[in-house]
Amino acid sequence: MGDNLIQQAADLLASARHAVALTGAGISVDSGIPDFRSENGLWKRYNPMEYATIDAFVEDPEKSWLMLRDMGEMIFSAQPNAGHAALAEMERLGFLRAVITQNIDNLHQAAGSHHVVEYHGNTSRFVCLSCMARYNLEDYTEGRLGDPPECQQCGAIVKPDVVLFGEMIPTVARLDSEMHASKADVMLVIGTSAEVAPASLLPEAVLQRGGHLIEINLQPTHLSRQKQVLSLRGSSTEILPALVELMREA
């Protein structure tokens, strides 16, 4: 990847009227959270159709929590990396309107991003499906999870406030992401194959309106060869800080 491509990307972002980012699992790999579908990912240890569907949780929440506890321990020990920090800095400098994230790890917020659309929810929050009471991680054993946490109102086992297989995207997150995609003239697509709907419809919406995508990924995707897509191959922890430095000079 040449410096010229980085400069082109920086120029696109610096001149954008409404730039947003769509992030996937790839941006958090350097924080120690492997893609759930990767060789070292969660789905190699737990069949998601057995542990991570909404039906499985409702039928046997204790069993689902065997997987959820492992997921939580992996996520809660992670820290934001240079890629997360660079996106927060782009927002602070006024170049980025929002981050739409498919991740549930809270790392964008921890890095300092304020306008984060949580497409799949957040593991730091919990909801009771029986009485709909809501809690934060700190409400349980000083932020650590032991036995499956119970609702402090009705005693039912609570569910992490994340989208399990079979659940709909939260309405507010869906509408916010669609709003940003409808306005975006530039979208950063980082660490995601952008193949799974409905999140995959967001970059397509930008392209259909004549906007540009800046794709940052280790491997090419179906977006890479499309017109109006600038593909940067490499780690987001290296590319995003380099973009920020060039944008400071814009």
Outline the secondary-structure elements:
Blueprint: H1 3-15, E1 19-23, H2 48-51, H3 54-59, H4 61-76, H5 82-92, E2 98-101, H6 107-111, E3 116-118, E4 121-127, E5 134-136, E6 159-162, H7 171-183, E7 186-190, H8 201-208, E8 212-217, E9 229-233, H9 236-248
Parallel strand pairs: 1-2, 1-7, 2-3, 7-8, 8-9
Antiparallel strand pairs: 4-5, 4-6
Can you describe what's shown?
- The protein has 250 residues and is α/β, with parallel strands linked by helices.
- A six-stranded parallel beta sheet has the order 3-2-1-7-8-9, with helices on both faces. It has a three-stranded antiparallel beta sheet with strand order 5-4-6, covered by helices on one side.
- Helix content is 36%, strand content 17%.
- The protein is elongated and about 55 Å long.
- The protein has helices at 3-15, 48-51, 54-59, 61-76, 82-92, 107-111, 171-183, 201-208, 236-248, and strands at 19-23, 98-101, 116-118, 121-127, 134-136, 159-162, 186-190, 212-217, 229-233.
Summarize the structure.
By secondary structure, the chain is α/β, with parallel strands linked by helices.
List the defining traits of the structure above.
9 strands; six-stranded parallel β-sheet; 250 residues; alpha/beta
